[in-house]
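job 3f2a | input accepted
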Amino acid sequence: MTSWTGRWRFPLYLRIWIAVIVAVGLLTIAFGWLWRLNLDQQQQQQPLREVVVRNEAGEVIGQSRVRPTRVPGQGVEFAITMNDGRDIVVQIPPRPRPAGEGPAGGRQWGPRGPTGFLWMLGIVAVAVAIGSYPIVRRLTLRLEALRRGVEQWGEGDLTVRVPVQGSDEVAYLAQRFNHAAERVETLVNSHKSLLANASHELRSPLARIRMGLELMDPEPSPRARDEITRNIGELDQLIDEILLASRLDARESDIGTVESVDLTGLAAEESARAGATLDAGSERTMVVQGVPKLLRRAIRNLLENARRYSNGPVAVTLLAREGQVMVRVCDHGPGVPESERERIFEPFYRLRGASEREGGVGLGLALVRSIAQRHHGIAQCEANPGGGACFVLTLPCEQA
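job 3f2a | predicted structure (400 res):
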């Protein structure tokens, strides 16, 4: 693999610094040219002066009305036409001044004349070059840290995060990279956990089927037949839930047609099927935008989970508040400890003490949260004031 520095002749900080120096140099040249042009214009705009040349007797031997010409370092010159037709140049040299005294008695910051001015511009350019280097280097150091983090992350280290410094575009880019890296790491770890747990969960029903076949008589008993049928159904449900979980994790996958769904009627059908009581209050029909089969699956999973662990009747309550509809499924089971109310939604996670004989493989609640997120909602677990747990599915409501 070709290294990053091998693909470029100069590092980024050096190229930016050279660009700054070149820009300052061009500005210096342009400013010097404009300054010289301004001097020429000032000389051309000098007013005409009457210059008279007399001899020792006081007679006028030459007289002209001319414009003075300033020669840097030599003074002021006047071109005069004499009476005999000759042209002469009269020069007035500059008055000697103490070091540092300007034409008007003020102090100068450098040597007089164009050479001194160019030296001053050169010193300014060097000062800008020296002062800009740490600023440019500080900026590119953060870019290099971001580049190193992206390279390490691209090589497979998904735990890499880059430091976020400052509040400019580079800091925002580092922050977005960290956010994207965290999401990718979570997704990859979720898929790894899904595959690892799926392989473990598939072994249990397969082992039971194998044992049932070994103990089966030439004429299988109804009990053995029912056990094998139950295990096959459990395998079929597990595979179906794994495939649905994979489709929900893939944001670009087609999960069905989004349409207006009567959540009140949907909850009534599933409650009647599970033998649960439904309390919709005095609210009118609650309509949400979503995929009907996924919303039905979410409510069914909540009811099956509550029926599996409840020691009494399961209650379903529908509430509409501030543009949202909440489906609360409450049971009277052992409840969920507060420290595990988030982990209960992780794939294949079971509470302590839960066994396979109670049914379920630990994907039902994970699917409920994934379905809620795909519908821009949330799924939460709360304590039931009467004992047990309440699972709340909150979705945006179109009409209440």
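job 3f2a | Residues 4-52+59-93+109-150 form one domain.
job 3f2a | closed
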